[in-house]
Amino acid sequence: MRHLISIADLTNEEIEEIFALADDAQNLRAVKPASGQIMATLFYEPSTRTRLSFESAMQRLGGSVISCSDMKASSTAKGETIADTARVVSSYADVLVVRHHWDGAVQAMAEQADVPVINAGDGSHEHPTQTLCDLYTLRKEKGAIKGLTVVLCGDLKNGRTIHSLVYALARFGANVVTLAANGMALPQYVLEHLERDYDYALTPVDADDLGAVVTETDALYLTPKQPHQLALFTQVDQVIQAQLNTMAAGLRYDVFYMTRKQKERMGDGSPDEGYPTIGRDFLRAQRFQDTVVMHPLPRVDELSPEVDKDRRGIYFKQAAYGVPVRMALLKFLFDRRAQKRSAAKRSTIPYESPERLGPQCRNPNCVTLKEPVSSARRFELRLPVQDDALILTCSYCDHRFKVQFAGNVKSKRYHFFDSALAPALNDWLSKGELALFDSIKEAEELGYEPFKSGPHRVLMADAEIRNALAEMSAAILRDCRDPERLLILGVRSAGSQLAQRLAAEIEIRCGCKPEVGEVEIYGPGEELRRISPAEADAGALNLRDREVILVDDVIFTGRTVKSVLSIIFRSARPQSVRLAVLIDRGHREVPVKPNYVGKNIPSSEHDRVRVRLRELDADQTDQVVIYSIVNPSETRVQAAEPSTSGGN
Ligand code: NCD
Question: Does the structure show a pLDDT above 50 at 606?
């Protein structure tokens, strides 16, 4: 059965095919290919355009429509699960069109339905049919999509239309400039999909260069990786920065895609202040002469009605295309009822825990947490492993997170995840023996015991670590322009402990304590947070124009640093970012070079190096140790201490 849950369910060729059908909508209307068919619309969230254009499309195809005018007046109010609703309604209709407030809910419903299911928007995840309308509009107005430069503006964090659109733009070869409202940048999981699946990388550009339409935001430029690849790693390189700005100045902006602040997904009544708006003045600038303005609608205050009369305001046309595009989509899906899910879907390995306990998605709005009975804890796993981390992607909401512990169902042994384990994990995965856990507690509750690791050798003891930190802090102070503007940013967890120690050393030397923050990749919540000063009213961590010292315990491949740099540049543009690591293992896969290094340890890739800190370990001593892993496939050995590694 072909469903449309994500824009990734359609190949570019299939999208073109749908557009060709849409061009021929008059003919479809005459032929009535859906006559005798029924479409059910299940909208758990408000809608005008999507619902009415779908209903109009179905009727124009000769079909009919059944619907619940208000899902709150359906059996949902009595506690019916979405899985049951989907199963029942799919026996009344030939296609379901569903909108829901949970990320992944439509996928969960599609799993129960034996008719095609179309996602009309699920939480802040995706809205693929809006993207079809957007692309169709672009094609009509601008000809080809390839090579266009599209500015995405507003709430890029919660806007589902943006997420589907940015993937599609990347696939069709457009350039994307993101202009996010403060704190509403594209989520890291979206950026990582862009990079991993579509080879798109992120480059910071100067917000002023976009005509200063927005305050308190920084513009980011997404582009096919070549030729701007280096820019992602720009630290203090003014030359590259200057080149980038010139490049941005030379850009022709073809499209300005504006979006509303998704207040219903924030829940905290965050202030509207500083939210970007566009009106007539914006369009006066010479460089926007041929820039069309799009908006998925509804608009609130961000797009002034003044733009309606301007030839460049094409959002009502965009909404009108909703009917022919949805007619075409319905016809396309009806013709493929017998087909399996599209090959366009990413080719990753599905993973479901063979144990009763196992990892859980960290997105609090994911259907797997909101209604576990309607979904499974199913993920996509990527092996061989990158980042020295095991990353799971939720099959429902696409959020990515890191798993710490891996075990074998047969030997009932677990180990802190380590890239040296990758071949063994691959083997277990193929045999259905791979168990993954979020915590030691989870593993031990299921009767797992730790794997044994080889003998530990101490590479740096307490005093040596202390000296290294003292020397690094002196060097940081020597290089810094203004100690008042220093921000010491640690990578969680060992990196943020070291960041706090460096800050204390700096205070001893210069008398002022620099601000300390922490960055967490693949964590459940905010990626950047302040550690000290700890005052609650100190506001969000501000990186703009700061001298940032990024601190981590071990640098190995450099991939962690790369992910952190992307988080930093998405938040704001610091004056500089310098990197301090206690240990450099020298196995770089990306071009980053630490500015401050405690000790170089060019160890073999198979060795594990771990920084133990008294704050994190019960051991009470600071040490850097090196060890190897005993083949974890071995059957039960004497239980040994679980060893963890600071791989990167
Ligand atoms: C969008 C949605 O529901 O996500 N509306 C639509 O379908 N055109 C955009 C929005 O609500 O902001």
Answer: yes
Residue 602 scores a pLDDT above 80? no
Diameter of the chain by CA atoms?
Answer: 84
Q: How far is residue 308's CA from residue 287's CA, in Å, rounded to a whole number? A: 19
| 282-298: pLDDT as tens digits | 777 777 788 899 999 99
pLDDT score recorded for residue 373? 93
pTM over 0.70: yes
* DSSP letters spanning 462-491: HHHHHHHHHHHHHHHHHH-S-GGGEEEEEE
Crossing angle of the two packed helices 12-23 and 128-142, in degrees rounded to 10: 70
| Beta-bridge partner residues of 122 | 100, 126
For 239-259, b where at least 16 C-beta lie within 10 A, e where not — what string? ebbeebeebbeebebbbbbbb
Query: What does the angle CA 450 – CA 453 – CA 459 come to, to the nearest 5 degrees?
Result: 130
Neighbour tally for 357: CB within 10 Å: 17
Residue 461: which H helix or E strand, with range? none
The continuous run of DSSP H or E covering 120 comes out as strand 117-122
Show the tokens assigned to 242: 């200057």
Q: What is the pLDDT of residue 297?
A: 94
DSSP letter string, 255-301: EEEE----GGGT-S----TT---B-HHHHHSGGGTT-EEE--S---S
Ligand 1 centroid to residue 153 C-alpha, Å: 14
Query: Which token pair is 119?
Result: 């996602």
Q: What angle do CA 523, 583, 382 make, to 5 degrees?
A: 40
Ligand 1 centroid distance, CA of 50 (Å) = 8
Most confident of 105-114, 166-175, 521-530: 105-114
597 C-alpha to center of ligand 1: Å? 49
The 10 Å Cβ neighbour count of residue 175 is 22
Residues 6+ positions from 557 with CB-CB distance below 8 Å: 387, 388, 587, 588, 589, 590, 648
C-alpha distances out from residue 547 to 186, 231, 318, 482, 529, Å:
24, 18, 44, 8, 16
Cα–Cα distance between 65 and 106 in angstroms, integer?
A: 19
CA 161 to ligand 1 center in whole angstroms? 7
How would residue 587 be classed by pLDDT, with cut points 50, 70 and 90?
confident
Q: What is the pLDDT of residues 153-206, one digit of tens each?
A: 889 999 999 999 999 999 998 888 887 777 788 888 898 888 888 888 766 555
Name the residue with the closest Cα to ligand 1, atom 8: 296
SS3 101: coil
Best substitution site from 55, 99, 118, 297 to test ligand 1's pocket, by max atoms within 8 Å of Cβ? 297
- In order, the DSSP letters of 577-595 are EEEEEEEE----SSS---S
Query: Which pairs with CB-CB distance under 8 Å and at least 24 residues apart come from 464-471?
Result: 464/599, 465/582, 465/598, 465/622, 465/623, 465/624, 466/622, 468/582, 468/598, 468/599, 469/498, 469/501, 469/502, 469/505, 469/582, 469/598, 470/505, 471/598
SS3 424: helix
Residues 260 and 294 sit within 8 Å (Cβ to Cβ): no
Indicate which atom in ligand 1 lies nearest the CA of residue 262.
12
Backbone phi, psi, residue 113, to 5°: -95, 145
Could you read off the pLDDT of 329-366 as tens digits, one per residue? 999 999 998 776 654 455 567 898 888 878 999 999 99
